[in-house]
Specification:
The protein is mainly β. It has 2 domains: about 90 residues, Thrombin, subunit H, CATH 2.40.10.480; about 70 residues, Thrombin, subunit H (Beta Barrel), CATH 2.40.10.480. It is built from 1 helix and 17 strands. The strands form 5 sheets. The protein has a 4-stranded antiparallel β-sheet, with no helix packed on it. The N terminus is likely disordered.
Length: about 180
């Protein structure tokens, strides 16, 4: 899952950080080098590819695929063709002060605006749930892409949530377990 052309040093990283997903004979995977791909499990033939860079696990549900890219865009794609039904920029309006200069104590004027890093999505009760390294959890309408709710979890979360029964569990970067009903 690497691109033929390299545009920067990060594109040399060909890792598939998010786990590939197998669903009804398809393997869906996204790489750090900028390729989201659907491949036939039996033949190994590529069905389609898109130039999307990501490090999270895609979520496949029925005829759609949900995936978050490194820039914080949440995509809803047709599983068969890769065509986009909708795209939501989760970072929009959520920039925070920080970055390298901020870490080393640079002045506010010198600090870069940094978009949040989002976890893998999970589909529960018709909503996609994701959390960010800023401690925010969002519930996104799976059909429309509209953010329906936002909750402050209080801690950074970069690992995708899991669901069991009526509860969704988030593990913070400090190894705390948060249960949301």
């Amino acid at each position: 899952l690497s691109r033929a052309s390299r545009t920067n040093a990060l594109s040399e990283i060909r890792d598939i950080a998010g786990r590939p997903v197998i669903y009804q004979g398809d393997v869906v995977a996204i790489s750090h080098s900028g390729v989201l791909s659907s491949t036939d499990l039996r033949t190994g033939q590529t069905r389609w590819t898109l130039p999307i860079t990501g490090i999270t696990t895609p979520w496949v549900a029925g005829d759609v695929i949900y995936v978050v890219d490194r820039a914080g865009k949440l995509y809803c794609l047709a599983r068969e063709t890769g065509l986009a039904y909708w795209v939501r920029d989760l970072g929009e309006g959520r920039e925070k002060r920080g970055g390298f200069l901020g870490f080393w104590g640079g002045s506010d004027a010198n600090r870069a605006k940094v978009k949040p890093v989002w976890s893998s999505p999970i589909l529960a009760a018709g909503r996609l749930l994701l959390a960010s390294n800023t401690g925010e959890m969002v519930a996104v309408n799976a059909r429309t892409g509209e953010v329906e709710r936002s909750v402050n979890l209080g801690e950074s979360v970069t690992v995708g949530p899991i669901a069991l029964g009526e509860t969704v569990y988030f593990v913070t970067d400090e190894a705390r377990l948060i249960a949301v009903r």
